Amino acid sequence: MLTTPTRVRAFSLFAIWLLWEVNAQIGWLVPEVFTPTSQILAGLAEISTSPVFYEHMFFTILSTGVGFLIAVFAGTILGIGMGAFRIVGRALNPYIAALASSPKIIFLPVVMSFAGWGTETKMTMAVIGAIFPILLSAYAGMLSINPVHIRVAKSFNIKWYDLITKVYLPSLRHPLLVGFRLGFGASLVSVVLTEAKFGESGLGFLAMQYYGLYAIGKMFSVLVILFALAIIANFLLDRFATRVPH
Amino acid sequence: MTQKKDNVVLSVEQVSKSFYVEDEPPILALSETDLEVQKGEFVAVIGPSGCGKSTLFNIIGGLIPSDTGRIMVDGRETNGPDKQIGMVFQEESTFAWRTVEQNIAFPLELAGVPKAERVKQAAHFADLVGLSGFEKRYPAELSGGMRQRVALARTLALEPQILLMDEPFAALDEQTRMLLGEKITEIREELDQTVLLITHNITEAVQLSDRVAIMSFRPGVIKRTIDIDLPRPRGPETISSDKFGHYVGEIWADLREEAARGLRESEKALADEH
What we know:
The complex is a heterodimer of chains A (about 250) and B (about 270).
Chain A lengths: L4 H22 L10 H11 L3 H34 L1 H16 L6 H8 L3 H25 L3 H9 L4 H12 L1 H26 L4 H10 L3 H27 L4
Helix pairs in contact in A: 2-11, 3-4, 3-6, 3-9, 3-10, 4-6, 5-6, 6-9, 9-10, 9-11, 10-11
Chain B lengths: L7 E12 L7 E12 L3 E5 L6 H8 L7 E6 L2 E2 L7 E4 L11 H11 L4 H14 L15 H13 L5 E5 L7 H18 L2 E6 L2 H7 L2 E5 L6 E6 L8 H4 L2 H32 L1
Parallel strand pairs in B: 3-8, 3-9, 6-7, 7-8
Antiparallel strand pairs in B: 1-2, 1-4, 4-5, 9-10
Helix pairs in contact in B: 2-3, 2-4, 3-4, 6-8
């Protein structure tokens, strides 16, 4: 029965739904929060007809997307730079590792004091969230580049920009994709967290607002939308990945 | 030898190189090494492990600078990697993300050759190394011997005057290595290619070369060169001939001392570490 990934996937989704629904019906575990799925669906139906919801979603997508793209460029360039100049890379590595593993929300007050309460703050938080996994993946990839590829390239008197575009970047294709994927997740988390904490717009703000109003069905429907956005983004990255040769 | 001086296409003049390791006396890898290669000649440099063969390879190819001396190509001193010297490396070096065609066209792409011309040239060199029909494949879909031929074609694509190879067959099995050797001989005849081969394999050196230069172990210098006066093509009959065996024996007699000394020193170095 559970013989293909798709079947396992469908079955586990069904099992979780069943557990959830049974729990909601018998009211065993915090029934106030784990509301019946019918309510979540009703919430979805309701918010999907309100233009305000699309406005919030637009802001979340915009902040995450722009921040992520900036992090993709900056992280890739910095990671390659650290790998190409070993001394710099080795000198900076401990700092970057420390920053990478600290919760990014601690930067929020600093960012807010510069960028205020708006979209710029969320974009900056998205950059801060995404840049570390991307940078570290690029750097790790640089350290594992096949040295003979560099020697071949140098034997052909390669120019530095050709070395980057024709040897470094293609060599980094797999670690970079992992970095992009982790980075996207991190930027979405940063944006939604910022929205939930201090924002006046976005899906994180909306979810918190519904929570405050005790509209649990609607709150969950916002979370479902966020979940769907993450899945779509991953799907797009996967599509991109399949076009990369092994 | 009776060849005229103006036939010399590559000359290594008084090249020395030392390596410095912290807290240790410097290692003199090459000491005032001289070597001349005539146009169209196939020369093998043979030596024990650690004798500085690869250092010589890297210096001739312009990948590392020498401490003293110079490398002359066609009477002109080289300065870094030279267009007229094509390097083939020991390690697997094809680009996994490029097809055979794109691999071969890599140096042409760097030189700004237009795409249509690159494709044409790549097809020509793929054919030359016997890889016609594999142009659109990726290296992962090829055998080790085929990948090494891709690397060879990639180097030949720039039509260098001198083909410089560092143990290009090292990663291959014995039979593939023999066949690839034959292929290189064929290509060499077709292009009238000058070849300098760095190797530690005596049979390979005798099978392929016009002249074998024997290197000593630290400091590396060319101790002696031996002309290999065997008819071509050198098929199984030549390889099983007495004369072939005689050359192998003669080279081994010279090399044995050096190899034994190299082994003693590396064992001593290992013992000192403990």
